[in-house]
């Protein structure tokens, strides 16, 4: 009778590498925060933060922070509705409670994890009892990311135009500060136009590549997902608008002297800077990288570091804590995952 030899496998090298990566991430965070602290008027900053903490207990400040939380929750709910609709279009019909649980857990994992693992996690969680649906669910997330990337490209171009126009003295010399702020805010109305141009460009390209045998399968999948982006353009625009307005509420909570038009334009710029900073999660919870990107943009826009730094802290702290809080609140309402009802894989 043959004997069975038991082989012991060790994952010690992998564990050691993960530990090194973990501590290197924290080191990168500390170095970035240290670099940001150079040139800070700590006495003035301490006075400002002390004043802000003193006013934090006023109903007005708490009201602004509550409004931000409501707007942020609204943006998450709109994203959830968009994903649910895409799942239904793909033929995957699940109760909204199960989709909500996977979505909130994925958002939370994106914050504490690395390399956008939350998107992989929610696809796996939603299809764990039906593994053959994993490509279908992953395709809906790919469409979501393509939609947001197109909108991000439109906002990035608009914000760049606003920053570039500020350097053209001959253009801005004939405008008052209020008129110039309204002009830059009006540039945001062109974002849907850039999004539509992106859809018009990708749609024929996506149809053409499906019949080309020399194009890799992964590229066909990416470009094929672009065929359904136009249907959710209004909802995506509304999501980004709500996120931009919520960033503007932070300026109100800090009681900054900025005009509403300038604050709203800055908020959309912060949205762009923040998204570009967290595309690849380099540090734990994006500590340091997000702050650096936001502060850099605000200073390029003319804001002093005494205002940019507290704003960057709040703009990172609130979107980090709130998704974790929402995911925790949703846990008592979490139901066991049932097998999805698939009508087709369209």
- The count of helical stretches stands at 14
What is the element string, with H for helices and E for strands?
Answer: HHHEHHHHHHHHHHHE
Query: Ranges with pLDDT <50 over ≥5 residues?
Result: 1-10
Q: Which range does the strand content fall in?
A: under 5%
Strand order of the largest sheet: 1-2
| Beta strands, count | 2
Q: Helix amount, in percent?
A: over 70%
**CA gyration radius, whole angstroms:** 23 Å
Please state the structural category.
mainly alpha
Could you describe the largest sheet, including whether it forms a barrel?
2 strands, antiparallel
**Straight-line N-to-C gap:** 53 Å
Q: Give the overall form.
A: globular
How confident is the prediction overall: mean pLDDT?
76
Domain count: the total is 1
Protein architecture, described:
A two-stranded antiparallel sheet has the order 1-2. It has 14 helices and two strands. It has 346 residues and is mainly alpha-helical. It has one domain (64-330). The protein is globular, with a radius of gyration of 23 Å. Helix 4 (96-112) packs antiparallel against helix 5 and helix 8 (177-187) packs across helix 12 (260-277).
Task: Give a quick set of tags describing it.
346 residues, mainly alpha, two-stranded antiparallel ribbon, 14 helices, 2 strands, globular, disordered N terminus
In a few lines, what is going on in this structure?
The protein is mainly α. The protein has 14 helices and 2 strands. The protein has helices spanning 12-36, 42-55, 59-89, 96-112, 117-126, 134-166, 169-172, 177-187, 191-209, 217-225, 233-253, 260-277, 289-300, 305-330, and strands spanning 92-93, 341-342.
